Amino acid sequence: MLSNLGWPVFCGFAVWICFYALIHQGSLGHHLIRRYFAGHPVEYVEAAMFFVGVAALAIRMMQTIRNYFSLRLVRLPPIPPGGQPAGDCNGLLQTLGELPERARKTPLGKRLHDALEFVRRKGSADGLDEQLKYLADLDAIRLQEGNGLVRTVIWATPTLGFLGTVIGITLALGGLNANLLVEFPQQAMEGLLAGLGVAFDTTTLALTLSLVLIFFKLFVDEFETQLAATVDTRADVELVGRFQELGSEKDPHVASLRRMAETMLQSGRELVECQAKVWQTAMDQSQQQWSRISSSIGEQLQNRLSESLSKSLQLHAVELGRIEATAGEQNREHWGHLQTSMTQYAKYAQAQHAEMNNQTSVMREVVEATGEVVKLEKALNENLSALAGKHNFEETVMSLAATIHLLNSRFDVGSDNSRQVKLTKEKSKSQGRAA
Fold first, then answer.
1. Which of 150, 178, 356, 420 has the smallest set of CB atoms within 10 Å of its CB?
2. Nearby residues of 247 by Cβ (< 8 Å), 6 or more positions away
3. Helix or strand or coil: residue 243?
4. CA–CA distance from 338 to each of 176, 326, 353 (Å)?
């Protein structure tokens, strides 16, 4: 509705306004243009209808050219040898749906879509040729209906011209004055002729504009006819012979038998699906029952294991308590023995320490005695040296022995035999050195 009436009227009135704006501004100030387009109110209406008709034809011309160049975008897959089954219509419709929008809206795209929908709904390609012819007739009817506005403008424009002429003659004759005709007949005739000239200009303009619209429409109709023929040819090439037709005039029951066979196959398929669903339901029920049994067995097993573990843990706890008490008792006994041993060891260490102190005292006394012996030895050596000079050696030896004996008796208290041995050895050494 908008493309057939709305846009032409809108565009036509827009051009009409611009045209008269140029006339009144002086851009189109030629006297013929003013005379034939702005000399009478009817001429304004005729010009408006003319521009609306031109806009409608121009829009249809552009649509036809666009559809013509879009035909190359509409293609179906090649026809396989032996044709295709009617069930492939869904794939072909999907192929058409994937085409660009401008290709789907072309007459060929719509024709193929409607024909494939017919085959899909019917389930067979029987009567496809008649359906294609029917669709072609519908397109022709739509084409004629689309030209209704242009046809109306073409026949209404001359009618407006004649109406303007009648109105002009009526006004011219009504303006005549009897006194003016008697007194100034020439002036009255000039005014009458001028009025009639302006009145007949509306008819002249209307007929001229109608002729322009007629030739323009003829040109557009030629393009549309060529496009319709191309669409019919392409539709026949794409669809005729594509689908398998089992029935014919000689044997019309083949299609019925095929439909019966397809129905039986469909019933068998549904039966298999139903049986599969039954089996699936049975398996699901068995699985659910097995799950419930497994859950029950698991719970029972868990309860039994819990009871057994509880008893085992109790026995284990009792045995651990007994073992812990026994180990504690053994540890206490061991620590008692260990404490006793440590006490004895402390006593032994204390006694050893006292003995070590005694030994240290003895060693200190021995060291002191040794110092004294060294001193005595030094004195003895000095005495020996002196005696050697005086030839009193024997007396000196006796005196030395008495001195040693005195020393031995002095150190008997708190000393042992080893020290006496050492002193004896020292004595023998001293004698040796004296000798």
1. 178
2. 124, 126, 253, 254, 255, 256
3. strand
4. 163, 18, 22
- How high is the pLDDT of residue 395? 66
| DSSP run (H or E) holding 402 | helix 393-410
What SS3 string covers 65-129?
HHHHHHHHHCCCCCCCCCCECHHHHHHHHHHHHCCCHHHHCCHHHHHHHHHHHHHHHHCCCCCHH
pTM value is: 0.51
Residue 195 has pLDDT above 70, yes or no: no
> Token pair for residue 432?
């040796």
Q: CA-CA distance, 122 to 130, in Å (whole number)?
A: 14
Contact 113, 96 (CB under 8 A): yes
Q: How far is Cα of residue 77 from the mean position of the Cα atoms in its chain?
A: 33
Among the ranges given (105-119, 228-242, 344-358), the one the predictor scored with the smallest mean pLDDT: 344-358
CB contact set of 129 (below 8 Å; sequence gap of 6+): 240
pLDDT of residue 428: 45
46 CB-near residues (< 8 Å, 6+ apart): 157, 160, 161, 164, 202, 205, 206, 209
The C-alpha angle with vertex 283 and arms to 281 and 286, in degrees rounded to 5, equals 110
Q: What average pLDDT score do residues 369-390 get?
A: 72
* CB contact at 8 A, 31 and 190: no
Whether 414 shows a pLDDT value over 60: the answer reads no
Q: Does 415 have pLDDT greater than 70? A: no
Distance CA 340, CA 351 (A): 17
- The pLDDT assigned to 191 comes to 62
d(CA 352, CA 244): 128
Instruction: Tell me what the mean pLDDT of segment 385-394 comes to.
Output: 60
pLDDT, position 431: 46
Whether pLDDT at 109 is above 80: yes
pLDDT higher at 19 or 173:
19
Radius of gyration of the chain (CA): 73
Residue 243 and residue 119 in contact, taking contact as beta carbons nearer than 8 Å: yes
Token pair for 272: 């298999």
Report the distance separating Cα 435 and Cα 423, nearest Å. Answer: 18
Q: Are 211 and 162 in contact (CB under 8 A)?
A: no
Q: How many CB atoms lie within 10 A of CB 169?
A: 15
Cα–Cα distances (Å) from 341 to 338, 351, 434, in that order, read: 5, 15, 57
Percent of the chain surpassing pLDDT 70 = 80
